[in-house]
Design a protein that fits this description.
2 helices; flat; about 80 residues; five-stranded mixed β-sheet; Ribosomal_bS16; alpha+beta; S16 Ribosomal Protein, Chain: A; Ribosomal_bS16_dom_sf
Length: about 80
Amino acid sequence: MLKIKLSRTGKTHQPSYRIVVVEAKSKRDGKYVENLGHYNPVTKDFVVDTAKYGTWLTKGAQPTLTVANLLKKHTNEKSA
């Protein structure tokens, strides 16, 4: 089963995350199938390729709760 997860990058006390498609039981920062975007909680920068995201959802990949909430929050902010 594939999941759409956050993979941590960045230095100590300066986190940034990649939004990636990985096997559900793989390590958090292990190999990934595809990189869909990135998220920086310090600057509130959130970029995701929605076309690729939708493609992976149709293929059966399940987003984690955090990724789903981030996507919902940032799409609502852009429409408002």
